[in-house]
Amino acid sequence: MHEVRIGIIGGGLMGREIAAGFARWCALTDVTVRPVLTAVADLNPAALSWFEAIPSCTLRTTDYHELINHPNVDVVYAAVPHNLHEQVYCDTLAAGKDLLAEKPFGLDLAAARNILEAVRRSGRFVRCSSEMPFFPGAQRAVEYARSGALGRVLEVVSGFHHSSDLDPHKAANWKRLSAVCGAGGVLNDLGMHACHVPLRLGWRPERLFAQLQKGYPRRPDGRGGQAECDTWDNALLHCWTQIGGEAVPLRMEMKRLAPGATNTWFLEVLGTDGGVRFSTAEPKTLWQFERGKEQWWKRTELGFGTPFKVVTGGIFEPGFPDVIQQMWAAFLMERAGQLEGRFGCATPEEAVASHEIFAAALQSHSTGSVVAVGV
Ligand SMILES: NC(=O)c1ccc[n+]([C@@H]2O[C@H](COP(=O)([O-])OP(=O)(O)OC[C@H]3O[C@@H](n4cnc5c(N)ncnc54)[C@H](O)[C@@H]3O)[C@@H](O)[C@H]2O)c1
């Protein structure tokens, strides 16, 4: 196994999830690259101290510049609040490191474009984190959509729902403040999850109409006071895209106020001859529509058919930590030139395209009109 030394900037929710994914890398049986966590940077000493449990992680620093300039780091994973993306990502690239960085690649479209320019200038290998398409059911849905078996595509729905904001007593965090999360709010937070597969399939929205909703205007601040929360919480984007020379409705849904949902990513593609539906609410189940003399929705229990093979039994069901690991396998194998046709991580260009969609959505909502995307 070829070892790649990783430094994590931001040891919060996602930084720890990624570190845990590396710790069980032995589960993967057909990769030639192994990540070794050597460094972590976080302003919060409590976040840093969690990484003491990982023996290879010998550099724990509050200054991310120390990490990006350290010779013991080949690749940086950055998972910091959105207002820091542009600076941290551009500094990392200027220090000569490759980068897997969290969505949405900056506060807004201008920041995402600046990051893309820095990627191109640096020549480094850079990808954007988006793990949900690595579920076996999502992979099968993508394959089926590409196969042509759907006939003429009639409509596409792609979304991500959770209900973290339903409880008014939950303390605010930076994701509820536009200054840190970005004016896009939920678009920045969950949008890449909904955009990744349609963009990868070439189904780029040409124009859209957006409906945005806010959540509670104030929440406890966790220190006995109240915090003003000004971000959009739910977004419905009604888009037109081109598929097979036809204009096709594509709906993207991103919700932090979805009653009953925890972390539900879903994709549905319906055509005249076939259809496919996958949701992480049923993590090993694929629904396929077929039309003959009669019509069927066929349910297949997929089990653990991940793109990169693992020791886990084929009948077991996959979950979030598994697809995080699969995404990293895709990143490291593509970096090593060994992706071999498998699904790759979201590209910086796709991250910019997602921000073009978010910018159009903000404009559409404020003007109440249909807006062209990316102009
Ligand atoms: N891919 C996914 O499914 C997924 C899920 C959640 C969050 N995210 C993304 O991950 C990123 C981080 O989100 P999170 O939920 O982990 O946030 P978090 O608040 O849990 O963690 C962020 C960490 O960054 C640290 N930090 C802040 N400023 C810093 C600085 N200057 N230098 C070093 N560390 C600093 C904070 O102390 C904190 O520990 C965001 O871009 C978010 O959109 C992705």
Rg from alpha-carbon coordinates? 21 Å
Strand order in space, largest sheet: 16-15-14-13-7-12-11-8-17
The proportion of strand residues reads: 25-35%
* Mean model confidence by pLDDT: 97
Could you please describe the fold and organization of this structure?
The protein has a nine-stranded mixed β-sheet. Strands 3-2-1-4-5-6 form a six-stranded parallel β-sheet, with helices on both faces. Helices cover 30% and strands 28% of the residues. The protein has helices at residues 13-23, 45-50, 64-68, 85-94, 109-122, 136-147, 178-181, 186-200, 320-335, 348-367, and strands at residues 2-9, 33-41, 59-61, 75-78, 98-101, 126-128, 153-161, 207-214, 218-220, 226-228, 232-243, 246-255, 264-271, 274-279, 285-291, 295-301, 371-372. It is an alpha/beta fold and 375 residues long. Helix 1 links the parallel strand 1 (2-9) and strand 2 (33-41). Helix 1 packs across helix 9 (320-335) and helix 4 packs parallel to helix 5. The termini are far apart. It has two domains: 2-128, Rossmann fold; 133-307 and 346-367, Dihydrodipicolinate Reductase, domain 2 (2-Layer Sandwich). The longest helix has 20 residues, at 348-367. The relative contact order is 0.17. Nicotinamide-adenine-dinucleotide binds next to helix 1. Nicotinamide-adenine-dinucleotide (NAD) binds at residues 9-14, 41-44, 47, 64, 79-82, 84, 102-103, 129, 131, 189.
